[in-house]
Amino acid sequence: MVDLASFGMVGSARMGEVSMKLYDGARAPNPRRVRIFFAEKGVPLPELIPIDITKKEHKSEAFTKLNPAQRLPVLELDDGTALAETIAICRYLEGLHPTPPLFGRDPKEQALIEMWNRRVELGLFSSVSAVFRHSHPSMAELEEQVPEWAEANREQVDDHLWILELQLAGNPYVCGDSLTVADITAGIAIDFMKPSRIRLPEEFVHIRRWHGELAARPSWKA
Amino acid sequence: MVDLASFGMVGSARMGEVSMKLYDGARAPNPRRVRIFFAEKGVPLPELIPIDITKKEHKSEAFTKLNPAQRLPVLELDDGTALAETIAICRYLEGLHPTPPLFGRDPKEQALIEMWNRRVELGLFSSVSAVFRHSHPSMAELEEQVPEWAEANREQVDDHLWILELQLAGNPYVCGDSLTVADITAGIAIDFMKPSRIRLPEEFVHIRRWHGELAARPSWKA
């Protein structure tokens, strides 16, 4: 995990009047999406509570009370409310800290960003994750692996990449001239190809240009 | 499909200054989510363009230009913008017509509704859909079916149902005292169990109470 002190991000776990805890899983892609989102907002990370998936801590009784879906991350608010689902946590932060806008500024922009975030999340990210969860040896103890599902998804990755490639051929970022939550989701999906043992073919030149720029942002170390 | 004239929902395809077209697939669950959302908002449906999935019209070149993911529904705005992804379309409508609020009114409420909508969508609805797509004979020509994936999902449906059941044990609706987009997604998931040939066990008494109330709403005929 990044050295948070180098971001000036420790020392305050407060956002406005709200003190929070983030149940975090260091290398997993969804907790990382949330940490990158905080960094892009310029908001200090709340207190991090590490949950070790390899020790099945996310299946403990205590954690299941926080999130019955037994998934990371979870943001616990000061009033005890447990907020799960990566995009729900990001949207909460957007509501408290509207600038810079990462979910859009008006109904049409918000809808197009929602569309692209879902398109890359339910398409590319979901397929890459399925390959990882259902074929990676480290997941064998955590998942009822279905190898046929890993293979079916592996075959779909290229189609999802082409949708992203064509969009990035005409736009600096996924939704236009500035970074949005859709770039974070898509960039994390590309990063997650490596542990999923999927190569990004050379021909995706626009994805390579855009991903190189993303990876150079300070937030990407989160 | 519902007789729209009985809702007073024909005669105007205008929302404010925006004239639109909705690419629709009559019995498919996602187009129906959007039609129910329009009805709950009290907004007339735009012009409907039927797309016949059984004839693979969603894979045509013309439709692929509208939505490279080749999925329904798509809302085409007057300026030619093609808005895909059910929840993006619903959120656009929420922006234009904030009342009644179906995505929440403040950051915390919005985040909790987003969480529950995703929890039921990526959990229950996704599993029920996987059973349908990967086991129903009518889908054999449209999908590369992976029977092992249908079975793995069939085994998970009960876990997803219990998450919903426990939430509805303490709340009239999924997110509290009034209907939100999360109820529409969850209700559609329950409806979709029937064509997916999954029985709702008797023991889910709170789901049965809530679903009975949903099904009695005029919007549910959409």
From TrEMBL, chains A, B:
GO terms for molecular function: transferase activity. InterPro entries: Glutathione-S-Trfase_C-like, Glutathione-S-Trfase_C_sf, Glutathione_S-Trfase, Glutathione_S-Trfase_N, GST_C, Gtt2-like_C, Gtt2-like_N, Thioredoxin-like_sf. Transmembrane segments: none annotated. Residues 18-101 form the GST N-terminal domain. Residues 106-222 form the GST C-terminal domain. It comes from the Bacteria. Pfam families: GST_C, GST_N. PROSITE patterns: GST_CTER, GST_NTER. Keywords: Transferase. Belongs to the GST superfamily. This is Glutathione S-transferase. It comes from Bosea lathyri.
